[in-house]
């Protein structure tokens, strides 16, 4: 082999080594960029919806409910439960002694919460009192507005047979405020006959007034 041929091979090998090293460097840089992108993606994930700026601060921090049913049919009604003792007595009158109910009351801080007992009659075992809305209206004095309606559960929801028996259905509703709770509560319940019962409760004094309207009252007036 001539000296020139040998030099050509050596130069070619050196060039190949240099090219390979350059490719490896680029690969390392590419890997670093990908890793940085992954971190940036994690940090830029959207915040939970609760952290988005609200359109209006109504003071309502959270609302929680626990549903119930029992074998005592009840007229559509709403009761303000201003203390733990009052709430426990209300539950005892309806023989609702399960831990889920007592724990719900025990977890309530009455200084910044409003606790309501809603009830009505279901036509059969697969009926429930469904809570529809919990909002606050503020026209000077904040009012807690609650709407509920008696409805028949689907087979998937109830998981039980549709026995023809009148039952009591209801909800315990707790509204927790960021600071002072609402001074009044307005509750609307649509019963299984389609009659709407509206009840206004003064939180401070626990006074109440009731209005009824709907198909039943319209028929009476006819």
From TrEMBL:
Organism in which the protein naturally occurs: Haloterrigena salifodinae
Biased composition (Acidic residues): 27-46
Organismal lineage: Archaea, Methanobacteriati, Methanobacteriota, Stenosarchaea group, Halobacteria
Stated name of the protein: Uncharacterized protein
Record field: compositional bias (Low complexity): 204-222
PROSITE patterns xref list: PROKAR_LIPOPROTEIN
Stretches the record annotates as Disordered: 27-84, 201-222
